[in-house]
Amino acid sequence: MTPNATRRRLLAAVGTLVMPLPVCAEPSAWSALRTGGVTILLRHAATEAGLGDPPGYRLDDCGTQRNLSAEGRTQAVRLGQALRERAVRVDSVLSSHWCRCLETARLSFPQHEVTPFDALNSFFDDRAAEPGRTRAALARIAAIRAPDNAVFVTHHVNILALTGEAAGVGEILVVRGGGGRLQVLGRLRL
């Protein structure tokens, strides 16, 4: 395993344990968001304790899934407020079908319609789905043009596959697409 792969795996493991921090961002993230033509890759907010969904979960029944905790709901609201306070333009909000992602999207961006997008669904339990979902997400991101910005609410495994970087719960990676790859422009986290 390469040193970068080892580092990414360690960061991914640690990222799931980190508690939300005050709103902070790399200056490059704010600059890119003001310019537009970027995607906000948002890992869903904090969930109830546990790893993965319970056995037998169903996407059509939130009661069978691992869902947002009270802390996660607060985190989602605060994240949306932080973006609105800085007048970040949001033109579309797409989400995984998982309830924790849909709820994060709706709480963060209540003024927008949230559109479920299959390419953002977790492939944690089905690694064979990763290439197709990643290609579809990359294509959608590549189509975003300034001044528009889009929000994609998704899962750790999806963000890692798209960017090669780990994201903590409720963390944003600001990305620009093109040429079949993404450029990470900055991060925003609570």
- Number of beta-strand segments: 7
End-to-end Cα distance, whole Å, is 31 Å
Globular, elongated, flat, extended or rod-shaped: what is the shape?
globular
Oligomer: single chain
Work out the helix count.
6
Q: Which secondary structure elements does this structure contain, and how are they paired or packed?
A:
Layout: H1 3-15, E1 24-25, H2 27-35, E2 38-43, H3 70-85, E3 92-95, H4 99-108, E4 114-116, H5 130-142, E5 149-154, H6 156-163, E6 172-178, E7 181-189
Parallel strand pairs: 2-5, 3-4, 3-5
Antiparallel strand pairs: 1-7, 2-6, 6-7
Helix pairs in contact: 3-4
Compact overview of the structure:
The protein is an alpha/beta fold. It contains six helices and seven strands, in the order H-E-H-E-H-E-H-E-H-E-H-E-E.
Q: Can you give a write-up of this model?
A:
With 190 residues, the protein is α/β, with parallel strands linked by helices. It has a single domain, classed as Rossmann fold (3-Layer(aba) Sandwich), CATH 3.40.50.1240. Helices cover 36% and strands 19% of the residues. The chain has six helices and seven strands, in the order H-E-H-E-H-E-H-E-H-E-H-E-E. The chain has helices at 3-15, 27-35, 70-85, 99-108, 130-142, 156-163, and strands spanning 24-25, 38-43, 92-95, 114-116, 149-154, 172-178, 181-189. The chain has a seven-stranded mixed sheet with strand order 1-7-6-2-5-3-4, sandwiched between helices. The longest helix has 16 residues, at 70-85. It starts with a helix and ends with a strand.
Key terms:
190 residues, alpha/beta, 19% strand, globular
